[in-house]
Amino acid sequence: MQADLRQNLRADSGKPLAFHQLIRIDDTRWYWYQRYHHLLVDGFSFPAITRQIAAIYRAWQSDAPTPESPFTPFADVVEEYQRYRQSEAWQRDGAFWAQQRRELPPPASMSAAPLPGRSASADILRMKLSAPAGAFRQLAAHMPEIPRADLALALVTLWLGRLCGRMDYAAGFIFMRRMGSAALTATGPVLNVLPLAVNLHATEDLPTLAKRLCGAVKEDAPPPALRRRTDCTR
């Protein structure tokens, strides 16, 4: 494992960007070693890979045949997307998002300088929010009717609003786009970063905000685009 990690494993190294190995130490002890480049997985594919490794582990424990891979080539996802780019839906969705962009409030920013007219930058500003261990779990337990992903989205929007001192702003959020597509059985990352208009109300409680934001995500796109682009409960 150490020898594997000591290699040059950058994306352009020419080395395999993923490696999994189940190592049997004795009759009751196993090691699972996995290494992958972040370009190859997302939040959907990681647990899918984990389930497959677990299935292989159970099979090997009982000397059963290795289960076949349930995954399809990522090339199928690329081909599907290329067909979409040539379809009327692409033009229709493009017009929809152009209109959405015109209606968005100014983007969230922690800079005192105005955003318009500033040159693009690749600079990354990282802010970390610390909380007591188990705090989110306890908060979610008091709101069982709110999916945890929706609750997390509401908390993030409140935090961003406080950081930039604004009640109305736009921000980009990552959404899964695997619904009804070839990507449901592929392991590569299939994501969209979509702009979301955030409007915070001083008198609104957290569950209401979470429900409203989830509703805004669902209404942000017409049904065909919604199926491709959003899933606010993931």
From TrEMBL:
It is an enzyme of class 2 (transferase). The keyword Translocase does not apply. The keyword Transferase applies. It comes from the Bacteria. SUPFAM superfamilies: CoA-dependent acyltransferases. Its EC number is 2.7.7.-. This is Enterobactin synthetase component F.
